[in-house]
Amino acid sequence: MPGLPGAFHWLIYVALVVCLVVAAWLFNRRVRAAGVSPAELAHGLRELASKGPGEALAVVGAEVFGQRRVRRRPYAGLMHLLIFGSYGMLTLGTVLIAVQHDFTGRFFGVTFLNGNFYLVEKALLDTAALGLLAGVGMAAWRRLAIRPVTLGARPTVVVAYAALAVMAATGLLLEAMRELAYPVSWSHWTYAGHLVALAITPLVGRLNLGAYQATWVVHVLAAFIFMGGALATALDHVVLVPLNIALQSSRAPGELRLPFNLAELLESGGDLEGVSSGFANPSELDWKRRFMLASCVNCGRCEEVCPANAAGRPLSPRKLVQALKGDLLSPSDGAGDLFARGVLDTDAVWSCLSCGACARECPAFIDQPGTIVEMRRHLVEEGNVDEAKALVLAQLERNQNPLGLPSYQRFARLAEAGVPTIEENPGAEYLYWVGCMSSYDQRAWGVASAVISLLRLAGVNFAVLGESERCLGECQRKLGDEAGFQMRSMEIAETLRSHGVTKIVTHCPHCLVTLGRDYRSLDMEFQVVHHSELVQSLLAQGRLPTPKSWEGGKLTYHDPCNLGRLSGVFDAPRGLAASVAGESFVELERSREKSFCCGAGGSNYFYKVPAQESVSGLRLAEAQAAGASTVATACPFCLSMLEDAARTAPGGQGPRVADLAELLAEALGLEAAAAP
Ligand code: SF4
Ligand code: SF4
């Protein structure tokens, strides 16, 4: 800081302390408004550290420093990367200068900003200053010219961005002024400052010490206004989002919060009297979930990918989270739960398909589907459900399936096909979990029939539970009957254990997620594979032949949400599709993690909500746009929804819809296991 009075840089330290105190005060105010105390937050972070912070650090590293989700949108991603990366580099560079100048150099005579390291650092800092200016320019353009509906040019945000721009610009100006006053031979390393120096050379006569000092004051003030004040603006996400990401890092995609563990509760002599599994108002949520809601940045990414929103259903996950956040920060007047107070409409909650697209996209790691299920739990506890949903829950209790068909008919088709029960074949390697759809639905039986034929051809030793199989309760859980689901899961796990079952294969991704992930979270562990994984491995081992020819035209594959996004099974079904159709396989535009729901998820298969279009119709139109003659899927619910959409497709019959197992069995010339 040549040319500045000695006291100036000590004043900077004083200002830094003031700035940090203001930032801490604002942070405290911010989190307390969400009903969270800094002590709770600190406790949560300590808890995370004590569990071994590896997972949290990896997620924070990828999402905060690597900006993994933010980068998915090219414009916003580049803008964030430029601002975040450049600000980080400039902060680090400033800290290094302070450490050398006022600590290692002053007290120990040790300097490290020397030689080539110093030159490279100077060039990097100039690049960061330019990057920051470019990022702020992009942010200004986005808010003022592009103007996405969710972002406005609020005055506080404008001040914060202006402070960043002034800080970067005056930094380069100071570098230029110094170069003019104290020319150096390596000025090309500070290339941006050097260019500014060339530009202001004509002004040299008028550049005096006063101008230099004034520029310094402006530079420092701008830096501290941003640092101290960002938490008072919508840019508070710089702090809140990384903290929320760390706190939510251990949650698996689609994993629902356990309000209680019924088995443990009953074992300890407790009961469910007075225990609530959902929430009536956001203020009742635990502090982590209150903090999560407060972290929403209103970016609208969840809304963009939401199939319910796309179909014109009364649900926008962004508006839903914002409504909950608004009610948390300043509760609306009135008595009763959030529905009675008009914060949300129940139709919004029932419109959700639990597809997880929003949660995958959310840069703040907000769990929209889980939050929605918790509101459904409250509605079920209050008995605030319509006839269709109440009927599904009643049928599950009465008939052990959501379709309301007699439980004794569950085994009828399997018996006819000669499939042994686990009692008849206790040494079976796999238990085949058939699920409600294929046990009762004529069309879905075709999937089970194909799976049975393939397993027999490959010589897999398998059996079924037969009449003691019952609904796993996925739809019950998604409808919000958590206690009923847990009670059911305990009984089913007991049945499976009594037969010594460890390995299970299922063709239903809903059963896969429930038996594999949900039961595990309740301490009931089974190895569960999807039929696409098992059949693909049988093909790879040569236990099944590869089909020779395909005459079905272009084949595409629809990723079921529960199999793809929520279970991470993407390659096995594609391997099967390629085995069947070879080069005729085409990807849909929204595939793998970006897949678009068929419209059946979240128990929506069993009831109707107001909508402008059908979700399955939108998905089928995408397959038609890809020129597909056949749409393969790997879920009986997707099969039913897409087939319905194909039947009613505009312009007559749509493409053929079939399960991958059906296509493979057909290509291998296998007979159906039994006539439907
Ligand atoms: S919930 Fe997440 S994706 Fe949706 S608006 Fe908020 S921050 Fe954005
Ligand atoms: S889970 Fe799917 S349907 Fe539900 S809010 Fe998220 S994106 Fe929309």
Q: Give the cofactors and ligands.
A: iron/sulfur cluster
| Share in β-strands | under 5%
Helix content: 55-70%
What is the residue-mean pLDDT, rounded to a whole number?
Answer: 92
Provide the gyration radius in Å: 30 Å
Count the E strands. Answer: 8
- Measured between the Cα atoms of the first and last residue, the distance is 86 Å
Q: Would you identify the regions where 5 or more consecutive residues have pLDDT less than 50? A: none
Q: Judging from the principal axes of the Cα atoms, what is the shape?
A: elongated
Helix count, DSSP H or I runs of 4 or more residues:
29
The biggest sheet, with number of strands, parallel, antiparallel or mixed sense and barrel status, is:
4 strands, parallel
Placed side by side, the strands forming the largest sheet appear as 2-1-3-4
Structural class: mainly alpha
